[in-house]
Amino acid sequence: MELAIQAADVRRAAERIHPLARRTPVLTSTGFDARAGVRAFFKCENLQRGGAFKMRGAANLILSLAPDAIKRGVVAYSSGNHAQAVAIAARHVGARATIVMPADAPRTKIDATSAQGATIVTYNRLTEERERIAADIVERTGATLVPPFDHPMIMAGQGTAALELLGESGPLDALIAPVGGGGLLAGCATIAKAIEPAIRIFGAEPESANDTYLSLRAGERVTAPHPDTIADGLRTPRPGALTFPVLQQFTEAIALVSEDEIRETVKYLLLRLRVLVEPSGAVSAAAVLFGKLPPGIASVGVILSGGNMDFAQLAGF
Amino acid sequence: MELAIQAADVRRAAERIHPLARRTPVLTSTGFDARAGVRAFFKCENLQRGGAFKMRGAANLILSLAPDAIKRGVVAYSSGNHAQAVAIAARHVGARATIVMPADAPRTKIDATSAQGATIVTYNRLTEERERIAADIVERTGATLVPPFDHPMIMAGQGTAALELLGESGPLDALIAPVGGGGLLAGCATIAKAIEPAIRIFGAEPESANDTYLSLRAGERVTAPHPDTIADGLRTPRPGALTFPVLQQFTEAIALVSEDEIRETVKYLLLRLRVLVEPSGAVSAAAVLFGKLPPGIASVGVILSGGNMDFAQLAGF
Fold first, then answer.
1. How high is the ipTM of this complex?
2. Does the predicted model carry a pTM greater than 0.80?
3. Domain final position from A94, A121, A145
């Protein structure tokens, strides 16, 4: 089967997203390296506009819309970083954004998204399906759906994080990224393997939301029944139809981390790198810090994928 | 009186410190700008090696030492970011570093400095004077004293932060930096005024450690009797003999911020910029966020000077 994206798609995305997505810094920490026993290059997508890598994919899709599509607007379902990114990108091009969010989503997230000018449509998580609501809006208005991960433009956009990282770090033995639906890792793996065919690709998941780990082992997409983790951005129950074949092609292994390891890593990154990384964004660093990579890796690119979290949650860590 | 440094000293420092000091990122936040009513460009010295701008001055002085001076080692007195910076820079050139620290300094700070290979000499804060202890070591060993701020090489090194900032931000209406002993602001003002003569220069101090504010008003160096603030890096009781004339020459005003404003700003920068800035490093941003700048300023460079603090302290904010 042909994969949904190629390296050239990521390179095109890098040119397209420039007006909206920041080139985020790459940080290093001798303290982290000494403790982890590997030289780590942290790609700080927590410092991305909107606070997460999601801006890259949303920008890539929305900046490629034709004028008449922009007039009809965009729709997304998300209670998190993807919602904010879609709202910011839509506002930038002058498209109306409708975001479908659970009625019980945290008030701060609803407010942050609506502050970007998006229209929020809430639904009852127990009785309604968000995909259906979004599809209804698309049918009624002709708006373009901006899916959270399973779309070639989204995957290619997310891959620009690895393109920038490798441009700054130079050759690396390995690359690791958090895996929710797999859009970030699929895009990053595609471009990284094109630049350095020998680079070893890893994903990171919470032990309690290990759908991609299970799927890769099974050789087919498996649903993890009740993903429950503080890494709320990684609660996706199974990898995407388009992302999974890419992950199968390129991923050597998925490293699993515990909830305690995630919490400790968030604190460690805060105090040693002096950046705020949300639990979902820190699973990649947790895997490195807690020795989940196989031997023989001297340098690793680590995608820190987002930095949106409550102060109260952090203070409790 | 001739000032202790000129813009050319800062430019030379920028070439010299390159092996040791990072070019730190400049971040922006549309949320901050909207709330503060001004476009802010944050120079993230909290992401500097060692976690503070202090690396710049220490690197500038220590990298300019002759081989025989390196053999005799360096001495510094500091319980904070300057100690760490001197230890890191000394280790880099292979010089022995002796750091004079109060015996009751936080264990974590002593450990962090000694982890960099420095020899720690402790003293009793109530009965001994650190300057005297350091002078004794210099006399006995021929080591070079690396003062925390009142030295041309230190001032010139700190100024490289503003040189990098203006190179990235483009022209700015104003620049603001925290003021302890005044080395950072003196260096930054010197180079900023040389690049943009019309730029307006501001310092920021805690209301409860306002020695430079008082000194500029008095037209001479004044001692603030008992500086007491959570901004522990700014408890210096009076500006330096060399830094003060530079501040007099270039500074339009010192903005004063309350302890509550500092705490709120640390939290705001954490959640909106997603970076950890210690209280001392956040007074500049606090002054902007709480409207302490005069009218007529549309864009401002804000030096976030450091990011070293305890998790427990942060969690209590």
1. 0.94
2. yes
3. A145
